[in-house]
Known about the structure:
Blueprint: H1 35-51, H2 59-81, H3 92-113, H4 117-127, H5 157-162, H6 165-181, H7 184-200, H8 212-240, H9 254-263, H10 281-307, H11 315-340, H12 349-368, H13 370-373, H14 379-401, E1 408-409, E2 412-413, H15 417-430, H16 435-464
Antiparallel strand pairs: 1-2
Helix pairs in contact: 1-2, 2-3, 3-11, 3-12, 6-8, 6-11, 7-8, 7-10, 10-12, 11-12, 15-16
Amino acid sequence: MPRVATPQDNGNPPDKPPRFLDESTTSSFFWRAHTVTVLAICIAIVTYEVANTDPSQDIVYNTKRSLCMCAFVFVCFGVTQAADGPFTRPHPAFWRLILCLSVIYELCLIFLLFQNLSDARNLLSHLDSDLGKPLPEQSYGEDCSVWDPDHPDGPLHNVWAKCDFFIIAHFLGFIVKTIIIRDVWMVTTISVTFELLEYTIEHQLANFNECWWDHWVLDVLLCNGLGMVVGLWIMDYLGQKTYHWRSLWQIRSYRGKFRRVAAQFSPYFWTEFHWRPRSSLGRWFAVLGLAAIFLSFELNLFYLKYLLWIPPPHPILQVRTGIVAFSGAVAMRETYSFMFDSTRSKLGQQAWLMAALAVTETLMVVKFGADLIRIPPPVHVQVCWLLGLLGFIVYTLGYFVIPNLGRFRGGRYRRTVSEVGINLAVSAVNEGGCGSSGEEHSGGVGNKADSKTTKRRRIKIKNKK
């Protein structure tokens, strides 16, 4: 893949946009905060709802209306007053809105978490009368024949029967995952691991019972694989693109103005991610933790819709998927900056919130589906996971721990001069510095080591005399 343009190419540190156009300081109507205007609109709408709506004795209606107004006021406050994240396109207010919706979703999950399963289902049925009804279980693994020439619907009828809406969802989902993670090996690991998890819990969720070719051909190779290819193509395009932004008022032609408005929905600049999970033991577990969070969001979706009786086409699931996708993009950028930018001392607000969402959803699955998750998997599945865990432990010890045992002497970790120079050079590159800074640091360490060696030689010569 060609080298991707980064903010360092313009002489800026990480997470800082290029110098050619600072949109945050412009005085145009589009970039103003409009805090007073939003406050006036918010107060006007609340006042209108209070003054022009007849009181009702229906507690359910009043509760719905009150909660909607609470969410509306909170969103108005957050869109104008919340801190900006790393993304500015199409507008920082859009990403502040996503943050507010994530907070509301987290609060709803916390509220449902302290209910029992029956009450949680009844609460959702007040939002939509179609909810609160048991879902039919659908299994895809009864007939795994690929070619059946005697069937009246055609020899490939079984294959075509498996091609439903979820095929498109898989494809689009992995385009988004590839753009969010920006690492083909990490996305591939998530794709393969999720299929293995489907094998593991197919005895709990019937719709995970699929044929082998449905797992590895339709899902991994076709849907996920093609999604990753398209995602990599988009990353390649964004990486090779020249980012030179001009104000809309500096463009004279109407065609140029239209293209500038369309380009407002593209990134302000593009940063390539280099996770380097095998660079250190801490980085190894950090990247694995990120993959585990991604997989937890995937599995929790299927568990929650099964436990709370939410059919797949319902808007609740679509809104949840949109919130997780947009919030995950911001959270991944903040996490990458937190891991690689030494100037950042705290985790970003969206990354913090996404971690809380993953934990809260998992707690709901454990609480509401305690009887379901207690069903043990088959013996061969347990043996496979035990062998996989053993292989993971052996690999981690063999790659990170055992090669470093010789460097521990007397309880102190001794690093060679070359390793110190390499680490300083890598950190300088990560922080947006040039190669010369790393060389200067390593040279300083080398001079210090040479001075120590000279002192030792002088002491030896004096002792001999």
